[in-house]
Write the structure tokens for this entry.
Amino acid sequence: MDLSGDYYSCITRLLETVRERNLGTIRTVAPLIGANMAAGGILHTFGSGHSAIISQEMVHRAGGLVPISQIGDPSGGMAENLPGYGRKLAERYQALCGMQAGEFIIVTSNSGKNASPIDVALFAKERGLKVLGICSLEVAKNNRSEHPSGQRLFEVADYALDNCSVTGDAAIIVPGAPVKAGPTSTFAGALLLNLLHLEIITYFVQNGLPPPLLQSANTPGGKEHNAALAVRFQHRLSHVV
């Protein structure tokens, strides 16, 4: 028995599938996000529960673009199906950071059915933003929405990325146990966002624009470099305001 080896093999295959299945959509949407960002726009992200890990992946990290901001969920996902909760989070974020027509928001929900991510997506669309949804299309299509509208994330989103995760997220059979182990959605979501991130950076480079990239604060001059960049965007970034 080699559960960790089985998991490694599973994830390796999964990441190949995720890239192949989503690269076309990523290369369609990345220049649109890049163009908006180059014009002064902010890319917003949201995820609830463990999907918050994915929404954080692009935010304020070395080698990443500065104008990316996360809508936080202080409940840690415990209230993600409380009616109207996601809308209240979005309203608070709107008051602090603003969401402007023409900007993009990435909303992540592995199941694609929970209410808060759909609340946030609908709120953003009302304000003229484009929604990029990340979910498991297989899981979402086989589950009923928890949102009062009856819609699932991929039905609300303008663009959808499929993390190719399996029902229940975990993929590895554990002998003698009634449930599987080894989650798949985090690896898949992180790959999707980093592929997207690099395609946005490619847009900047191909158009002769300097990409506003963060430098590691642990390298010489990193803090000064980042502080200079933050001045341009800090009034709209949730981790700064």
Notes: Helices lie at 3-38, 51-56, 85-96, 115-126, 137-141, 153-156, 185-206, 222-233. The mean pLDDT is 95.
